[in-house]
Write a structure and sequence with these properties.
Order of helices and strands: HEEHEEHHEEHEEEE
Oligomer: single chain
Number of helices: 5
Strand content: 25-35%
Largest sheet: 5 strands, mixed
Helix content: 10-25%
Structural class: alpha+beta
Strand order of the largest sheet: 2-1-10-5-6
Length: 166
């Protein structure tokens, strides 16, 4: 019986690796954590790895200046517009939707507001990304907003905890 138990134990890590290989962020710190999207009328959406992986992925190559110098990378994630649309948060009336912003908050309290007009395909059409990978690997400090075209990194907010519809 002891030999059989050892074989099972030896087999389990390989099985676990195969099972988790298709799950983004498996084994990363973010896999166990969540960010929350607070929508209109009290709607709450838990942003999990599985939920985000079900949405169409987008990649963006970007570089920006931060306090640490130039930071560059290839980011993979979900367009902010696509996320809001998939969760039924966007109003069908464009004029109503244009009155709103999404306030993004990081774990350290840093906040950035993105206007709906800025990300709407019919208006600003900015491909702002809720990223979960950088250079092909999970982002170790959680979800990150990626704003292609921004020369400074202040809106590349990391360790996102909440996205609030206002």
């Amino acid at each position: 019986m002891h030999r059989q138990t050892h074989r099972i134990r030896a087999f389990l890590p390989g099985l676990l690796a195969l099972t988790l290989a298709g799950v983004p962020w498996a084994g990363s710190a973010w896999a166990a954590e969540q960010a929350v999207l607070n929508g209109p009328d009290g709607k709450v959406v838990n942003l999990t790895a599985t939920m985000l992986a079900a949405l169409p992925p987008t990649e963006a190559t970007t570089a920006y200046r931060s306090s640490k110098g130039i930071e560059a990378g290839v980011y993979k994630g979900v367009l902010l517009w696509d996320l809001l649309q998939a969760e039924g948060i966007l109003d069908q009336d464009h004029k109503t939707a244009l009155r709103h912003v999404l306030l993004v908050t990081a774990g350290d309290g840093h906040q950035v507001a993105f206007s709906i007009g800025e990300i709407a395909p019919d208006f600003g059409n900015r491909p702002i990304l809720l990223a979960y990978e950088m250079n092909g690997a999970p982002i170790p400090d959680g979800l990150r907003m990626v704003v292609p075209g921004d020369l400074r990194g202040a809106r590349h907010i990391k360790d996102i905890t909440t996205l609030d519809w206002r």
